[in-house]
Automatic annotation (TrEMBL):
Residues 141-186 form the RING-type domain. SUPFAM superfamilies: RING/U-box. It comes from Trapa natans. This is RING-type domain-containing protein. One of its GO terms (biological process) is ubiquitin-dependent protein catabolic process.
Length: 466
């Protein structure tokens, strides 16, 4: 079985009329009114007590996407933003305008006017794509002379190379015990890191000219050289390291967070001049980047380094009288206990989190049990990864070392799948009877309008505004 995230945009929009605005009922017991034509006479009940529908206003689309004209079509006066609008009078309404379907606040239905930003959004999207021409020489690696593959950027000169090409260059420089210089400009390299931004550019270039694509053999070879998975500090001191140096002086170079192991032997290891370092994302302290040790040093989801597990594996719990970072911070996914739904779940909308919590309880299960189940499905590649917001999601599995933030992202992703595949009968009754919001999980209204968030289901795919 495989669960795939599909766009339902075209199918859904043919069955629902294209609305450009709506009247959102302030009282969730009454339905919203969709405004689908550029000029529409609204016909609905105006008194909560009656089901009699009659025409009471006409709404005409404005030219500027942010306002509209409202004309009173009722035999009564109506109230717009507190102003009395008599028969056939016209006023301008804006996003958020309050429209009361009769002459008084009490007893009549109250609506908020909302313009659906769909056309605007698709227009913006078009404007965001610029056609640019690129000199191919500017997207090529000066080592292999091909378009970058898994680009890395070195600093301070900011030249770019394939990860595999530069990894091999780095390895050879270290073998020879010489400082690492940029293969392009010969400047000393202090830092190298993956550049995900360039990946999109490369993708576009390869799409435009597929003859630039590399063969599978070449890619496999580059992958086998690749060693840069997190940001590496290649050189942080200016001069040769001397024994017993305190890093407070000249040698501290451009960082105030030197590596404790450059001056003190911990666990039988002392850094050499060529040792590459990582900087802990939490405490900013440096640690040597060690290969061949069985301890994670960085998170594969965000590619940031975390020092806790490393120092704890050496039995070091204090450095310079400061406690070291948490040893559990890179615990494998399947070894982590979970007792609460992460706050980022369901787009941070508390109500949907509560619904998920109640579902799980009602099914007689625990959160841990549900997550373990879904980690299994995830591990067997049964879930589409489109919505998983981690780097290289296809390389992540149940034994991956993730930081706390990336673990929360993974759990939220799994809980989305738990909910979206759950038969309606497992939902609590108040949640089960809700219709899906057209904007699904991407809906912005759910974040500022509690009524709306409760009234419609938002753990669903967007069918609009894509
Ligand atoms: Zn290259
Ligand atoms: Zn350079
Ligand atoms: Zn060191
Ligand atoms: Zn740390
Ligand atoms: Zn992470
Ligand atoms: Zn919504």
């Amino acid at each position: 079985m495989s669960i795939v995230e599909v766009g339902e945009c075209s199918a859904a929009s043919s069955s629902q009329p294209q609305s450009w605005a709506k009247l959102v009922s302030v009282d969730p017991r009454y339905p919203d009114i969709d405004i689908s034509s550029d000029e529409m006479v609204v016909c609905s009940n105006t008194l909560p007590s009656s089901t009699d529908k009659h025409e009471w206003c006409k709404i005409t689309k404005g030219s500027n996407q942010s306002s509209a004209m409202l004309q009173n079509k009722s035999s009564n006066a109506i109230l717009v933003d507190g102003e009395v609008v008599q028969g056939e009078e016209t006023v301008i309404v804006n996003f958020g305008s309050e429209i009361i379907s009769g002459p008084a606040r009490e007893g009549y239905l109250i609506y908020k006017f909302e313009i659906i930003p769909i056309r605007e959004a698709s227009q913006n999207r078009l404007q965001n794509y610029l056609q640019v021409s690129i000199d191919l020489e500017h997207v090529k690696c000066s080592i292999c002379l091909n378009v970058w593959y898994d680009a890395v950027t070195v600093a301070p000169c900011l030249h770019n190379f394939c990860n595999g090409c530069f990894s091999e260059w780095l390895r050879r420089s270290q073998e020879r015990g010489v400082s690492v210089v940029c293969p392009q400009c010969r400047g000393v390299v202090h830092f190298v890191g993956r550049n995900h931004f360039l990946r999109n550019i490369v993708e576009n270039v390869l799409q435009a000219d597929s003859s630039l694509k590399r063969g599978n053999d070449e890619i496999a070879q580059l992958d086998s050289y690749t060693s840069i998975r997190t940001n590496l500090i290649i050189r942080y001191g200016k001069k040769r390291r001397r024994p017993n140096l305190t890093f407070a002086g000249e040698e501290s170079g451009n960082t105030g967070h030197p590596c404790p192991q450059c001056r003190t032997d911990y666990g039988g290891f002392l850094c050499s001049l060529n040792t590459v370092h990582l900087q802990c994302h939490t405490c900013r302290r440096l640690m040597p980047y060690r290969s061949g040790i069985n301890v994670p040093q960085y998170c594969v989801g965000c590619e940031k380094a975390f020092c806790g597990p490393y120092w704890h594996s050496l039995g070091v719990t204090m450095i310079d009288n400061n406690p070291v970072c948490n040893s559990d911070s890179l615990k494998p996914v399947n070894e982590r206990p979970i007792s609460r739904i992460p706050h980022i779940t369901h787009g941070m909308v508390h109500y949907e989190q509560e619904v998920t919590e109640r579902c799980i309880r009602q099914m007689g299960r625990s959160l841990q049990d549900v997550i373990s189940d879904w980690i299994g499905k995830f591990n067997r590649h049964e879930i589409d990864l489109t919505l998983l917001d981690l780097n290289h999601p296809e390389t992540i599995n149940a034994t991956s070392n993730l930081c706390d933030i990336c673990y929360d992202k993974l759990v939220s992703f799994l809980l989305y799948w738990f909910r979206i595949t759950l038969p309606n009968r497992h939902l609590p009754r108040d949640a089960a009877k809700r219709a899906d919001c057209w904007y699904g999980y991407a809906c912005r209204t759910q974040h500022h309008n509690e009524n709306h968030a409760r009234k419609l289901n938002h753990v669903c795919r967007p069918t609009r505004g894509l």
